[in-house]
Amino acid sequence: MSSVKIDQEPSRGPVAQLEEFLVAVEAIVGADNVSRDPSSGGPAGFDDSTAYGDPFPLASTPPAPGPAIRPATVDEVRDVVRAANRFRVPLWVVSRGKNLGYGGSAPVEDQSVVLDLHRMNKIIEINEEYAYAIVEPGVTFIQLYDEIQRRKLDLWLSVPALGWGSVVGNTLERGFGYTPEAAHYKHQCGMEVVLPSGDLLRTGMGALAGSKVWPLYSGGFGPGLDSLFFQSNFGVVTKMGIHMSPAPEAYTRIVVEVPREADLVPLVGAMTDLMRRRIVTNPPQLFDRMPMVTEAARLHPELLAMLGPYGALDRHIPDTVMDAVATAIGLPAWRAAFALYGPPEAQDGLLAAVKRRMALVDGAVLTSETFTAEPGSYLRGAVVTPDFLPQNGVPGIELAAMFSPAADGRWHNCFAPVLPPSGRELYEWYQGARALTAAHDLNFFADFHVFDRYVISINLIVFHASAAPRIHALQLALMEFSTGLGYLEYRTHVSFMDTTAASQDFNGGAFGRFTTLLKDAIDPNGVLAPGKQGIWNSDAKLQRLSLGGAEEAEDKKE
């Protein structure tokens, strides 16, 4: 696999030019909203830190953020982008910078100025009848949920594992939740975007001033432009429409457990079949015993003691130790969770269909719990039994307690390829990826999300901070193994964006040539998020590849 050196960057303008830029933007956003020191100014995160950057850095010399700018309005964003062009200053754009496991608010290009949009936190509209909202990038899932509750609206929002992130930011990264609208990018409708020139664009039906269907119909007249702004550096999204679910009258939570590791094959086959038949409409969450054991050990000292010297997660936990803990607390090999949403009359029939299909999975144990609203009303997500991940649309930050950026804390990194909805192929990949993870003396945490026609198979590597130097080599090994089987990540850490992009090798890298062509055309100065998803201007791309050439030559010698 070709490699690109990640700790050298194309040169930019002189420091004095950066200072001129900062003085100029202070006049736009106010001096209080410009941080020359990136150690403060962002939205609070772990341990209430407001620092910019990656709380779990992987590279030996990771790219670090430079100063930060916090505009509050669309006009301020436009003026900042124009100033960046004038002074040739690169901007790394974040909605709230909570892209944890993928780099946080750290840039690809070292010392890029962070364009932090968290002050743009207006909820423009919530429409209960048509189940949509229009929000700015600083709006969090918790904020939108709280506003829905305050207004007593009968809506369920799809939320990710941690609710402190941006609705817009998560959607643009193709993040997901756990209700029927889980694939957030598929339920986005209409964007407002500041282009690299500072011009302002509305997509879809928003191209008509005063459009009444901008957040309702995701198409438009002419080419669909929305997808150009997912995982890209072609613009700054300042407003977005997002669709939600009408609150259901009834809800059934379902957990399925299987006793053997190889039972993954029929279990996944059953779940994807139920989804394609629209019996199950939210993506099942699927975990192996590693996250179950380590979370139980975190909460119960006697179980942590059973892990012995491996409890810190600085080393691979032997299977014999895992077996002992799992047996002591009666854990299955795999646990899946999903739900049924709809009218009370449908719950028994849908549940019977699920049970009939799961009966074909040898050894599967299914448990369920149904909640029904009072006649004439709808359920509130908060009244149902919560699951490990929020199928009830209630956001929280409790899972953040699993991690800590401290020097002796639990860090994490996500390796997230997309696989076919085949239990056999998923199991083949799981066995190989887990063996590679163990060979690097680390632990594979299966965090799989099963959709109707694909599986997002996340290896959520949780590790002691001292093990961070081994993550880089493991990530490259996992990438080589996965692409060899025909699987690419849907999302990656900022340290690996170039390498992942280099895997897009169809027709000699036609995809990369096209994105570079677009970048050159709409952002000739390369000011917006250089290197995001491996997208560079042609001159910066050539320079960056030349910087990595010596390392690549050395790799080939070894």
TrEMBL record:
<dbReference type="InterPro" id="IPR016170">
    <property type="entry name" value="Cytok_DH_C_sf"/>
</dbReference>
<dbReference type="GO" id="GO:0005739">
    <property type="term" value="C:mitochondrion"/>
</dbReference>
<dbReference type="InterPro" id="IPR036318">
    <property type="entry name" value="FAD-bd_PCMH-like_sf"/>
</dbReference>
<dbReference type="InterPro" id="IPR016169">
    <property type="entry name" value="FAD-bd_PCMH_sub2"/>
</dbReference>
<dbReference type="GO" id="GO:0004458">
    <property type="term" value="F:D-lactate dehydrogenase (cytochrome) activity"/>
</dbReference>
<dbReference type="InterPro" id="IPR006094">
    <property type="entry name" value="Oxid_FAD_bind_N"/>
</dbReference>
<dbReference type="InterPro" id="IPR016166">
    <property type="entry name" value="FAD-bd_PCMH"/>
</dbReference>
<dbReference type="GO" id="GO:0008720">
    <property type="term" value="F:D-lactate dehydrogenase (NAD+) activity"/>
</dbReference>
<dbReference type="GO" id="GO:1903457">
    <property type="term" value="P:lactate catabolic process"/>
</dbReference>
<feature type="domain" description="FAD-binding PCMH-type">
    <location>
        <begin position="61"/>
        <end position="247"/>
    </location>
</feature>
<dbReference type="InterPro" id="IPR016164">
    <property type="entry name" value="FAD-linked_Oxase-like_C"/>
</dbReference>
<protein>
    <recommendedName>
        <fullName>FAD-binding PCMH-type domain-containing protein</fullName>
    </recommendedName>
</protein>
<dbReference type="InterPro" id="IPR016171">
    <property type="entry name" value="Vanillyl_alc_oxidase_C-sub2"/>
</dbReference>
<feature type="region of interest" description="Disordered">
    <location>
        <begin position="33"/>
        <end position="68"/>
    </location>
</feature>
<dbReference type="Pfam" id="PF01565">
    <property type="entry name" value="FAD_binding_4"/>
</dbReference>
<keyword id="KW-0285">Flavoprotein</keyword>
<dbReference type="InterPro" id="IPR016167">
    <property type="entry name" value="FAD-bd_PCMH_sub1"/>
</dbReference>
<keyword id="KW-0274">FAD</keyword>
<dbReference type="GO" id="GO:0071949">
    <property type="term" value="F:FAD binding"/>
</dbReference>
